[in-house]
Amino acid sequence: MSAPNVIVFGPTGGVGSATALAAQEAGAKVALAMRDTNKPIPNLPAAGNFTRLEADLTEPASIRAAVTSSAAKHAFIYMANGSQDHMRSAAEALKSAGVEFVVFLSSIGVRGDIRAVTPDDFIAWAHAQVEIVLDDVFGVGGYVAVRPAYFASNLLLYAGSVAKGEVVRMPYPEGKFDYISPGDIGRVCGSLLVKGAKGIEKGMTFVNLAGPQVVPQREAIEAIGRAVGKQVEVVGFEDDEDAVRLFMTHLGLPEPGARQLIQAFKDVSEGRDSFGKGLYEEASANVQKYGGKEATTIQEWAVANRSKFT
Q: Quick one: DSSP state of residue 6?
């Protein structure tokens, strides 16, 4: 059976580009849906046979046009922050244009009954609302939410300080995270994008993902320092408000999301298990289970991305 035509929204991002590449390597014809079709995509080969289409996940008409043009049956999407209806109009546009299966980049913070997640858990709640929409519009077997934990690429927040040889200031340096590579997330998403419902167990609607190691932030930065040949000094913020402003400015998080993330940093620095019983083991194993390769360590990621810190 031949691979379906697929469409990837947000292909300029680390996960989106890796998703597109993995889907193409699996034999799919891949369309790239993006707001600016002239924007370079460093992670995709220039000779790659990708079709670029102008589209925006907050503009349903553009979604329908892109899907119709590409004849895509499967779509990869992410949470569009500008959506006023938790992406319901986007999901409906995808379906009306012929999409049969959706891979959604969600968050491992979404747990249990998606309809029971409360707004005080802002990041999880925001992603859960989109999962609810997909469940309503596509139903079980028509979508999968890929829920990664902490992105290794979040460390790029400190690239400027590392490159300049400055002290790296971060919230709660002893807090431990798993640092999953965007490339690993994209490889899983690309595989699921091509396989569709056949790629997951019957009745499953989500796949949790995590990196292969849980290490302190300080050690992650030190790994980057070794990769670029520098000794990097790491210190914590004296005031959480400074960290909140940093995350809002450089990660583009709304204030509730930034505050929640800083609280999570504080919690894990005090020894709290952010995963819970059995979740980390399942999520880390899923990288190879669904992506076909062992997960990238933070040390490997640092070496592969050292040019971004120089």
A: E
128 vs 224: CA distance, rounded Å: 33
User: Which superfamily, per CATH, for 5-150+180-209?
Assistant: NAD(P)-binding Rossmann-like Domain (3.40.50.720)
**CATH 3.30.420.40 given to domain 152-178+211-275+293-309:** no
Distance CA 283, CA 40 (A): 32
| Predicted TM-score (pTM) of this structure | 0.94
174-188, 223-237, 257-271, 287-301, range with the lowest pLDDT: 257-271
Q: Could you say which DSSP state residue 54 is in? A: E
Fold match between 5-150+180-209 and 152-178+211-275+293-309? Answer: yes
Percentage of the chain lying above the pLDDT 70 cut: 99
> Which phi-psi region, left, alpha or beta, contains residue 87 (left: φ > 0; alpha: ψ -120 to 50)?
left
